[in-house]
Amino acid sequence: QLVESGGGSVQAGGSLGLSCxxxxxxxxxxxxxxxxxxxxxxxxxxASMDLDGITKIADSVKGRFxxxxxxxxxxxxxxxxxxxxxxxxxxYCAAAxxxxxxxxxxxxxxxxxxGTQVTVAS
Length: 122
Hints:
Layout: E1 2-5, E2 8-11, E3 16-22, E4 31-37, E5 44-50, E6 55-57, E7 65-70, E8 75-80, E9 89-96, E10 111-112, E11 116-121
Parallel strand pairs: 2-11
Antiparallel strand pairs: 1-3, 3-8, 4-5, 4-9, 5-6, 7-8, 9-10, 9-11
């Protein structure tokens, strides 16, 4: 299972960090990623990282969000800086054990966390 933590509320311009821990799997997840879903909108990819540390970052968060991963601890972290009200969403952790390319597309991911709410006030 994937368990997210670290969501909350913050003022615009502030920072938050999200963490996701994978447990119960007998193998490493090659791709791990963060997605988000704002009210009334489709779920969209935010950032991904593979076991070799190769990342993909959505243009909307590039320069503000950083993804990192501790493979030994099966943990994925999303550091969010310079937050804006349009970053408000439920953030989901996702994993794809066998995918070769960690694209930011929903279809590529097998496992999903329950989500954690991030609210950015203006």
